[in-house]
Protein backbone atom coordinates (compact mmCIF):
# COMPACT_ATOMS: atom_id res chain seq x y z
CA UNK A 1 0.00 0.00 0.00
CA UNK A 2 1.41 3.37 -1.11
CA UNK A 3 0.19 6.95 -1.22
CA UNK A 4 2.02 9.68 -3.13
CA UNK A 5 2.23 12.91 -1.15
CA UNK A 6 2.38 15.12 -4.26
CA UNK A 7 -0.19 13.52 -6.57
CA UNK A 8 -2.44 12.18 -3.78
CA UNK A 9 -2.75 8.94 -5.75
CA UNK A 10 -3.01 5.67 -3.88
CA UNK A 11 -2.17 2.13 -4.87
CA UNK A 12 -2.67 -1.11 -2.99
CA UNK A 13 -1.57 -4.23 -4.83
CA UNK A 14 0.43 -7.43 -4.71
CA UNK A 15 3.65 -6.82 -6.59
CA UNK A 16 4.82 -10.43 -6.47
CA UNK A 17 3.54 -13.94 -6.08
CA UNK A 18 6.16 -16.04 -4.36
CA UNK A 19 9.45 -15.12 -6.00
CA UNK A 20 7.83 -13.94 -9.28
CA UNK A 21 7.04 -10.29 -9.92
CA UNK A 22 3.62 -9.54 -11.39
CA UNK A 23 4.19 -7.67 -14.71
CA UNK A 24 0.92 -5.72 -14.49
CA UNK A 25 1.79 -4.60 -10.98
CA UNK A 26 5.29 -3.54 -12.09
CA UNK A 27 3.78 -1.38 -14.84
CA UNK A 28 1.27 0.16 -12.43
CA UNK A 29 4.00 0.91 -9.90
CA UNK A 30 6.30 2.43 -12.55
CA UNK A 31 3.49 4.81 -13.46
CA UNK A 32 2.59 5.51 -9.82
CA UNK A 33 6.23 6.36 -8.98
CA UNK A 34 6.68 8.58 -12.05
CA UNK A 35 8.41 11.96 -11.92
CA UNK A 36 5.65 14.05 -10.35
CA UNK A 37 7.09 17.23 -11.89
CA UNK A 38 7.29 16.13 -15.55
CA UNK A 39 5.09 13.05 -15.68
CA UNK A 40 7.97 11.02 -17.14
CA UNK A 41 7.73 7.34 -16.26
CA UNK A 42 10.88 5.39 -15.45
CA UNK A 43 11.50 1.76 -14.68
CA UNK A 44 11.70 1.20 -10.93
CA UNK A 45 14.17 -1.33 -9.53
CA UNK A 46 12.16 -4.28 -8.20
CA UNK A 47 14.58 -4.55 -5.27
CA UNK A 48 13.04 -1.33 -3.90
CA UNK A 49 9.71 -3.11 -3.53
CA UNK A 50 11.45 -5.97 -1.75
CA UNK A 51 13.10 -3.41 0.51
CA UNK A 52 9.75 -1.80 1.35
CA UNK A 53 8.34 -5.24 2.12
CA UNK A 54 11.29 -6.05 4.39
CA UNK A 55 11.00 -2.69 6.14
CA UNK A 56 7.32 -3.26 6.85
CA UNK A 57 8.12 -6.68 8.33
CA UNK A 58 11.10 -5.38 10.32
CA UNK A 59 8.95 -2.65 11.86
CA UNK A 60 5.97 -4.91 12.50
CA UNK A 61 3.79 -2.43 10.60
CA UNK A 62 0.52 -3.78 9.27
CA UNK A 63 -0.31 -3.76 5.58
CA UNK A 64 -3.20 -1.35 6.12
CA UNK A 65 -0.96 1.70 6.71
CA UNK A 66 0.46 2.89 3.37
CA UNK A 67 4.02 4.06 2.88
CA UNK A 68 3.99 7.72 1.94
CA UNK A 69 6.07 8.38 -1.17
CA UNK A 70 7.66 11.81 -1.38
CA UNK A 71 9.80 11.07 -4.44
CA UNK A 72 10.29 8.10 -6.72
CA UNK A 73 11.64 8.26 -10.26
CA UNK A 74 13.18 11.58 -11.25
CA UNK A 75 13.91 12.49 -14.87
CA UNK A 76 17.43 13.87 -15.50
CA UNK A 77 16.07 17.31 -16.45
CA UNK A 78 14.04 17.45 -13.24
CA UNK A 79 17.05 16.36 -11.21
CA UNK A 80 19.18 19.14 -12.72
CA UNK A 81 16.48 21.75 -12.17
CA UNK A 82 16.17 20.69 -8.51
CA UNK A 83 19.96 20.76 -8.10
CA UNK A 84 20.04 24.33 -9.37
CA UNK A 85 17.12 25.51 -7.25
CA UNK A 86 17.84 23.74 -3.95
CA UNK A 87 21.38 24.83 -3.20
CA UNK A 88 23.08 21.48 -3.79
CA UNK A 89 20.68 19.32 -1.78
CA UNK A 90 20.16 17.04 -4.78
CA UNK A 91 22.89 14.65 -5.96
CA UNK A 92 24.23 15.16 -9.50
CA UNK A 93 24.06 11.40 -10.14
CA UNK A 94 20.98 10.68 -8.04
CA UNK A 95 19.78 7.08 -8.03
CA UNK A 96 16.26 8.52 -8.38
CA UNK A 97 17.14 9.01 -12.07
CA UNK A 98 17.81 5.27 -12.39
CA UNK A 99 14.63 4.27 -10.57
CA UNK A 100 16.76 2.95 -7.70
CA UNK A 101 15.72 5.35 -4.91
CA UNK A 102 12.64 6.37 -2.95
CA UNK A 103 12.02 9.07 -0.37
CA UNK A 104 9.49 7.68 2.09
CA UNK A 105 7.84 7.79 5.46
CA UNK A 106 5.47 5.47 7.26
CA UNK A 107 2.94 7.48 9.30
CA UNK A 108 2.51 4.82 11.99
CA UNK A 109 6.27 4.72 12.67
CA UNK A 110 8.58 7.39 14.11
CA UNK A 111 10.96 8.61 11.40
CA UNK A 112 14.07 7.62 13.37
CA UNK A 113 12.71 4.08 13.75
CA UNK A 114 12.15 3.87 9.98
CA UNK A 115 15.73 5.04 9.43
CA UNK A 116 17.10 2.54 11.95
CA UNK A 117 15.17 -0.32 10.36
CA UNK A 118 16.47 0.62 6.92
CA UNK A 119 20.02 0.78 8.26
CA UNK A 120 19.66 -2.62 9.91
CA UNK A 121 18.80 -4.24 6.56
CA UNK A 122 22.10 -3.09 4.99
CA UNK A 123 20.44 -3.20 1.58
CA UNK A 124 21.66 0.11 0.13
CA UNK A 125 21.90 3.79 0.94
CA UNK A 126 19.89 5.38 3.73
CA UNK A 127 19.53 9.12 4.15
CA UNK A 128 17.80 10.72 7.12
CA UNK A 129 16.04 14.03 6.54
CA UNK A 130 14.54 14.92 9.91
CA UNK A 131 13.64 18.51 8.99
CA UNK A 132 11.97 17.47 5.73
CA UNK A 133 10.39 14.45 7.44
CA UNK A 134 11.47 11.60 5.17
CA UNK A 135 13.95 8.77 4.84
CA UNK A 136 15.75 8.14 1.56
CA UNK A 137 16.33 4.49 0.65
CA UNK A 138 18.10 3.18 -2.42
CA UNK A 139 19.58 0.03 -3.91
CA UNK A 140 23.06 1.46 -4.35
CA UNK A 141 26.03 0.63 -2.19
CA UNK A 142 25.53 0.54 1.57
CA UNK A 143 26.11 4.04 2.96
CA UNK A 144 24.40 6.55 5.24
CA UNK A 145 23.99 10.28 5.63
SSE map:
Elements: E1 2-4, E2 10-11, E3 16-17, E4 20-21, H1 23-32, H2 46-59, E5 67-71, H3 76-85, E6 101-105, H4 111-121, E7 125-129, E8 134-138, E9 143-144
Parallel strand pairs: 1-5, 7-9
Antiparallel strand pairs: 1-2, 3-4, 5-6, 6-8, 7-8
Helix pairs in contact: 2-4
Task: Explain what the structure shows.
With 145 residues, this protein is α+β, with helices and mostly antiparallel strands. The chain has 4 helices and 9 strands. A hairpin with a 4-residue loop joins strand 7 and strand 8.
Q: Could you name the key traits of this structure?
A:
145 residues, alpha+beta, seven-stranded mixed β-sheet, globular
Q: Rounded to an integer, what's the Rg over CA atoms?
A: 14 Å
Work out the helix count. Answer: 4
> How does the helix and strand content classify structurally?
alpha+beta
Choose one word for the global shape: globular
Quantity of strands, as a count:
9
> Roughly what is the average pLDDT, rounded to an integer?
95
Distance between the termini: 27 Å
Helix content: 25-40%
Order of helices and strands: EEEEHHEHEHEEE
Largest sheet: 7 strands, mixed
**Poorly predicted runs:** none
* Major sheet strand order: 2-1-5-6-8-7-9
Amino acid sequence: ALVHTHTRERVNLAYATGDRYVPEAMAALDRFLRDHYSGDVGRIDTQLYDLLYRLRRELGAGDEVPFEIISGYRAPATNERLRESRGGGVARHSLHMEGRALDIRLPAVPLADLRDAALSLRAGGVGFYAREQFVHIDTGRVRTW
